[in-house]
Amino acid sequence: MEKLVKSQDETMLADSARGFLDDAAPVSALRHLRDAGRTHDPDLWQRICGMGWAGVLIPEDAGGSDMGHAAAGMLAHEMGRTLVNSPFLSSAVIAATALRQVADARAMDAMAAIAAGRTTYALAIDETHKFAPEATAMTAGRSGNGFRLSGTKRFVIDGGFADRILVLARAAEGLTLFDLPADRAGMDRTALNLIDGRDAARITFGNVEATGDDVLGQVGDAMAVLKPALEAGQAALAAEMSGLAAGAFDMTVGYLKERKQFGRPIGSFQALQHRAAHLWCEIEVTASAVLNAGRVLDGNPGEAALAVSLAKARATSTAQLAVMEGVQMHGGIGMTDEYDMGFYMKRARVGAEWLGDYGYHAEQVAALRGI
Amino acid sequence: MHAEGSLTEFRAEIRSWLEQNCPQEMRDGRITDDAICWGGKNWVFSSDAQRLWLERAAARGLTVPRWPSEYGGAGLSRAEEKIFLEEMERINARPPLKSFGISMLGPALLHFGTPEQKGHYLPQIARGEIRWCQGYSEPGAGSDLASVQTRGEDKGDHWLVNGQKIWTSYADKADWIFALVRTDRDAPKHKGISFLLIDMEDPGVTTRPIRLISGASPFCETFFDNVQVPKDRIVGEENRGWDVAKYLLTHEREMISSGGTGLSGGRALGAVMAQMAGEPSLQDPTLRAAAIRCELDALATGLTIERYKDMAEAGNGVGDASAMLKYVGTELNKRRHELIMSACGSDALEWDGPAGSRAADWLRTKANSIEGGTSEVMLTIVARRILGLPGA
Predict the structure, then answer these.
(1) For residue A237, what pLDDT band results from cuts at 50, 70 and 90?
(2) Buried b vs exposed e over A256-279: b needs ≥16 C-beta within 10 Å?
(3) Which of A154, A347, B202, B327 lies at a C-alpha separation of 20 to 30 Å from B298?
(4) Name one GO molecular function term (chain B) (predicted).
(5) Beta-strand relationship, A164-171 and A121-124
(6) A288 in reach of chain B (CB within 8 A)
(7) What is the pLDDT of residue B268?
């Protein structure tokens, strides 16, 4: 396996990503979007696609750069650092990875459309307040040669504006993944405004017609396609959250150096130094798990479940620690909307729940480790 | 850098070497201090197998796999060393030799030693012929290590050393001690220290074991009473011993940090706990949840140690980040042993009960976050040197 250090190419990629985002999508961009009452910035997404990032996991013959999961994680990390609001995870990571498992002519076209920024995707999977794909209740009943989909999907991240929806439903043969246009008749989308300023939809399927062509992969075998896609998404989300933690941490350490009380910088107080140092240690430990997940997905994708769940669980707890410590060490100003720390805290909470929370991934690790 | 192919070859070679050379009795997976050979002039081998294993490994340079072959090592790359360790773990082999010469003094000598010192001391360390102890702490110099008072007076061809060290691990069993000695009393405290090598048999050196809460006495007090130390037994420059001491500490901290991740031979803590408790799986949901959380942290910490070794090999020494590894690793180790004690319940409370040395092992871990620099000192190093937070 590749080493747990960034290669020269990866360092260049991360550096150029940071340079681009500091200019194109600093935290203030998210603030402007929220203040304007919008949950998505199509212009920013086009600029990101122009950087080639939407094709990071897409084969070269479908117009991608095929740089792999570790590289995708590095991009996600940088986006986490400035809280970039984009459908990168939904489209470029999750949907692209699902389509890549199929890789027939239609899937190649769909990937090309993602890489070029012509199509955005969302994944409709949750039905309750928690992530539990195996417990999917939404039905895909047989109807002639096709199916009729009924049920409600919640917490469909980017689902309010996405062009296409990947939706998991239960057919007689078992769980089946459908790839549907978002305007298919019978789909009732309600775009919701989440605490982190982004889009998530509730989508009700009222006997929505789907054909065999709409099935991604095999009927009754959704997981062959969905499991790699979820793992890719979970690893990239972990990377985003490790970037979020690093961004919140940098702000906090900057504040410790600059804020004066009792006639000296508050960062000279040992009580705060030790909290900051402990947090840095947690961030470093999580960074290892995150990079490892990318390396394993690139090198041995069939055996990535442990590495991915480890990364998502650790990133979840570290991001939450980083934002809690961030607010506490900022004091009163950390509680104000005017200050950015609150944005970090809200995104950390959404990221904690998306694609499986700490408990979900801890149980995955426990099962794989025989606990 | 090695191509994948040559690494595959290396694995096959080392596997067959281990197959032929590691005695069966040494494949029991026992890696605690009392099971491993520490070497030294007075070492009594626990078995012929232990002696054979040391001799064969030393002849192949595998007691110190990364050291250059001219000093008794095998000259392995980091990737090769990793393979060697994996193959050792695969057959549950005990390390052939463990010593502070290998983990602490050796790296400092490789970096600061004269050619004569390297040629003299390193091969003896590699063959397990001399056992070292560390003379750093003093009754008045614990976390504030640089305030050492043991002094060395310049007497022309030697230093006359007087003073007292404490927490000198295994000083009663060691042949030599590497010690921090104040050789300039007028200089600022970091500037007047020299790093001296002292023969424990020299007249005027005495030791006294300290009995700990675990019942064991791995630590000693060591006294120097007019000990004459020849001038060629200094490592690095006179009055620049603090540089050597710090360099050595980064290695010591790395060594201590790995204690919490590799204790159970790759098995999950929760599974080990259930087995120790005689339960098919952990029955107490609260304990199980804590074991899972600890497992996640242990896996991620293990990866972090790997990552920092990779970074060190890529040219950036671990440096101050060893403080992070030490802090994280030792706090984790304490958690692991608290959980093991909880899982075993009252079985673990007898000194000589069915659970064997559980209690002693548990108590021993409490020193992990003190020795080699306390957790609080580690956090201060991170805060000041890595995060750049201001001093008081």
Answers:
(1) very high
(2) bbeeeeeeebbbbbeebbbbbbbb
(3) A347
(4) flavin adenine dinucleotide binding
(5) parallel
(6) yes
(7) 85
Instruction: State the helix-helix crossing angle for B285-313 and A358-368, rounded to 10 degrees.
Output: 80
Min Cα separation B336/chain A (Å): 14
This model of the complex carries an ipTM of: 0.95
Q: Which domains does chain A have, with CATH numbers?
A: 8-120 (1.10.540.10), 122-222 (2.40.110.10), 223-368 (1.20.140.10)
| Ranges of chain B whose pLDDT falls below 50 | 1, 263-264
The DSSP code sequence of B322-384 is HHHHHHHHHHHHHHHHHHHHHHHGGGGGSTTSTTTTHHHHHHHHTTTTTTTS-HHHHHHHIII
Q: Which of A267, A278, A313 sits opposite B390 (nearest CB)?
A: A267
Which run of H or E residues covers position A101?
Answer: helix A96-102
- Give the phi and the psi of residue B214 in degrees, each rounded to 5: -80, -5
Mean pLDDT of A219-242: 98
Question: Are A110 and A340 within 8 A, CB to CB?
Answer: no
- Summarised one tens digit per residue, pLDDT across range A11-24 is 999 999 999 999 99
Q: Contact A280/B387, CB-based, under 8 Å?
A: yes
Q: In degrees, to the nearest 5, what angle opens at C-alpha B287 toward C-alphas B264 and B255?
A: 35
Instruction: For residue B270, give the chain A residue with the closest CA.
Output: A371
Q: Residue B25 carries which side chain, given as an amino acid letter?
A: E
- Cβ separation B389–A276 shorter than 8 A: yes
**Token pair in block for residue B314:** 């890529």
Average pLDDT, chain A: 97
Chain A residue numbers touching B288 (CB-CB < 8 A): 366, 371
Q: Which of B169, B74, B71, B158 is nearest to B121 (CA)?
A: B71
**Pair type for strands A164-171 and A260-261:** unpaired
Task: Place A127 in a pLDDT band, splitting at 50, 70 and 90.
Answer: very high
Residues of A in contact with B282 (CB under 8 A): 371
Nearest to A194 by CA among A158, A219, A167: A158
Bridge partner residues of B132 (DSSP): B176
What tokens were used for B15?
Answer: 């596997």
What count of CB pairs under 8 Å joins A to B? 124
What single-letter DSSP state applies at residue A125? -
Beta carbons of A297 and A307 less than 8 angstroms apart: yes
Q: What is the pLDDT of residue B263?
A: 45
Tell me the pLDDT tens digit for each residue of A311-353.
Answer: 999 999 999 999 999 999 999 999 999 999 999 999 999 999 9
- For B117, phi and psi rounded to 5 degrees? -60, -45
Higher pLDDT pick, B82 / A81: A81
Beta-carbon contacts of B276 under 8 Å, excluding residues fewer than 6 positions away, are B340, B343, B344, B355, B358
Higher pLDDT pick, A3 / A96 = A96
Cβ(B72)–Cβ(B125) below 8 Å: yes
Three-state DSSP state, B219: strand
Instruction: Return the ∠ at Cα A147 (arms to A145 and A150), rounded to 5°.
Output: 165
pLDDT at B361: 86
**Cβ-based contacts of A4 with chain B (< 8 Å):** 303, 306-307, 310
* Confidence (pLDDT) at B356: 63
**Do the chains contact at A292 and B303, CB–CB below 8 Å?**
yes
Length of chain B equals 392
The predicted pLDDT at position B1 comes to 42
Q: How far is B268 from chain A (nearest CA, A)?
A: 6
User: Which ranges of chain B does DSSP label H, i.e. alpha helix?
Assistant: 4-21, 48-59, 78-90, 100, 106-112, 115-126, 241-257, 269-277, 285-313, 322-344, 358-365, 375-381
pLDDT score, position B264: 47
Question: Is A273's Cβ below 8 Å from some Cβ in B?
Answer: yes
Is the CB of A260 inside 8 Å of chain B's CB atoms?
A: no
pLDDT at A262: 95
